[in-house]
Amino acid sequence: MSTSETKAITRELKLHAALLGGVVALLWAVEILDFVMFRGSLDALGIRPRTIPGLVGIALAPWLHGGFAHLMANTVPFVALGWLILLRRTSDLFLVTLLSALVGGLGVWLIGSSSSVHIGASGVIFGYFGFLLLRGWFERSVLSIALSLVVGFVYGGMLWGVLPTRVGISWEGHLFGFLGGVLAARLLGGRLRAQAAGAGGRQLAGRRARR
């Protein structure tokens, strides 16, 4: 590996660390602020199903958590799964995050219990999981299939989280966040397959022309 390639990889890893570290730092800053200054009252700004004010919670809910234990439980999978998405392209993380938060939030708003308030980044995390798990199916490349198998083996137990098995856990957010990640995998995977097919066609045409 050349010196320039090593430097490029180092810069990329630093960018990944800065991006994920910055988001995690902001999540913890919000929770500390809520604990110290607002005594947990910011949690009321989460998603309130089928209410107009509750729509604002779609944007705010991923930044709010029901205590430090809740946030700690989300921090590790957020970093691990987020970094796996960043390995290919930084822009992928932004699209997957947006679709997971939007689809997950709207799903909660539509079918969640009318007396509930939903908070936490777990919907986005399940979106990351859904994206990584299904990317191999939509992209059909050896690397993406291998990564999907690894993610399925390590994090496959997360699938139970999309079912209403525990009281007080937003399974709706998990389910629709997961579906948002699958949608992102479909969009990005389809685009990459089309690009690969186009590149293959151009190479074949070039070989025929040289003959």
Largest sheet: none
Mean model confidence by pLDDT:
91
Strand content: under 5%
Distance between the termini: 35 Å
Low-confidence stretches: none
Secondary structure: helix percent? over 70%
Rg of Cα set: 20 Å
Shape: globular
Which series of helices and strands comes N to C? HHHHHHH
Total helix count? 7
Number of strands: 0
Instruction: Briefly note the structural class of the backbone.
Output: mainly alpha
Describe this structure in words.
- The chain is mainly alpha-helical and 211 residues long.
- Helix 1 packs antiparallel against helix 3 and helix 5 (122-139) packs antiparallel against helix 6 (142-155).
- The protein contains seven helices and no strands.
- It starts with a helix and ends with a helix.
- The mean pLDDT is 91.
- It is globular, with a radius of gyration of 20 Å.
What's a concise summary of this model?
This protein is mainly alpha-helical.
Main features:
7 helices, mainly alpha, 211 residues
